[in-house]
Write a structure and sequence with these properties.
By secondary structure, the protein is an alpha+beta fold. The chain has a domain at 28-84. It is 28% helix and 14% strand. It contains two helices and three strands. A three-stranded antiparallel β-sheet has the order 2-1-3, with helices on both faces. A hairpin with a 2-residue loop joins strand 1 (49-53) and strand 2.
């Protein structure tokens, strides 16, 4: 092989992005894992970010970048869940507040 020859690169598989007609991603297994380990995670890693793959809590990290890098290095394009470890968890839905309502009292 001389200096003008190039080594062909293998095609990089493109991660599939869910479309608008696809069902939502099912994180029930990962959510159950988080709930099972929640007390320990809150006690030992409050404020960090958990990386969960299937039935395993892989670790707790300080930054999202660390979580994504570790998840990609270990699991490639497999499904992972990233969740901030909080106590209590933030509500899934926060209704709009009406500052004109009689029950609203500013600080």
């Amino acid at each position: 092989m001389n200096s003008t020859d190039t080594i062909p690169k293998a095609p990089v598989p493109k991660a599939r992005t869910p479309g608008r007609d696809d069902p939502p991603v099912d994180f029930s297994r990962e959510e159950a894992t988080y709930e099972r380990e929640r007390a320990r995670l809150v006690r030992d890693h409050l404020g960090k970010i958990a990386l969960i793959h299937g039935d395993d809590v892989v670790g707790a990290f300080s930054t999202v970048g660390e979580v994504i890098r570790t998840g990609h290095e270990r699991f490639g394009d497999d499904q992972i869940m990233i969740k901030e470890i909080r106590d209590p968890d933030l509500p899934v839905f926060m209704p709009l507040a009406d500052a004109r309502h009689p029950s609203f009292q500013p600080d």
